[in-house]
Amino acid sequence: MIELSQVIRELRTELYEAIATATGQDLRFEVGPIELELTVAITRETAGGTKIKFWVVDADASGKAGTVTTQRVKLSLEPKLGPGDRRPEVSGRAGERER
Q1: How far apart are CA 96 and CA 76, in angstroms?
Q2: Residue 90 and residue 92: Cα distance in Å, rounded?
Q3: Cα–Cα distance between 13 and 6 in angstroms, integer?
Q4: Would you state the pLDDT for residue 97?
Q5: What are phi and psi of 11, to 5 degrees?
Q6: Cα 65 to Cα 61: distance, rounded to the nearest angstrom
Q7: Rounded CA gap, 73 and 36, in Å?
Q8: What are the strands, taking DSSP E only, across 6-99?
Q9: Which residues are 51's β-sheet partners?
Q10: Tens digit of pLDDT per residue, the chain (99 long)?
Q11: Which stretches does the entry tag as region Disordered (predicted)?
């Protein structure tokens, strides 16, 4: 299992890589809403205060932990780039403008 925050960080990294590696390509794709559907396990820690964590469950591991309750969660993320909050394109470099 990995933390939900790590999944989102990895998604952000993948989007940045797609933007950076498509330099010079004429064909561009505007990134629209991204929907993630995940199986998550929720844990609660009470040491030093209550803290709840969301863990993304690997498809192979979901049946191995008999004491963990899982839920399906669907997230809709709207990626924005730069101070103008524009939709990113997977072409060129982040921050460059088309001429």
Answers
A1: 26
A2: 7
A3: 10
A4: 47
A5: -60, -45
A6: 7
A7: 8
A8: 34-45, 51-56, 70-77
A9: 45
A10: 888 899 999 999 998 888 887 777 888 888 899 999 999 988 887 777 788 888 898 766 545 545 667 889 999 999 988 888 888 888 644 454 444
A11: 75-99
Distance CA 46, CA 97 (A): 49
Q: φ and ψ at 33, to 5 degrees?
A: -60, 140
- For the whole model, what pTM was predicted? 0.68
For 63, phi then psi, to 5°, come to -90, -5
For residues 41 and 7, the answer to whether their CB atoms sit within 8 Å is no
Strands 34-45 and 2-3: unpaired
b vs e for 22-58, b when ≥16 Cβ sit within 10 Å of the residue's Cβ?
beeeeeeeebeeeeeebbbbeeeeeeeeeeeebbbbe
What is the spatial distance between Cα 43 and Cα 41, in angstroms, rounded to a whole number? 7
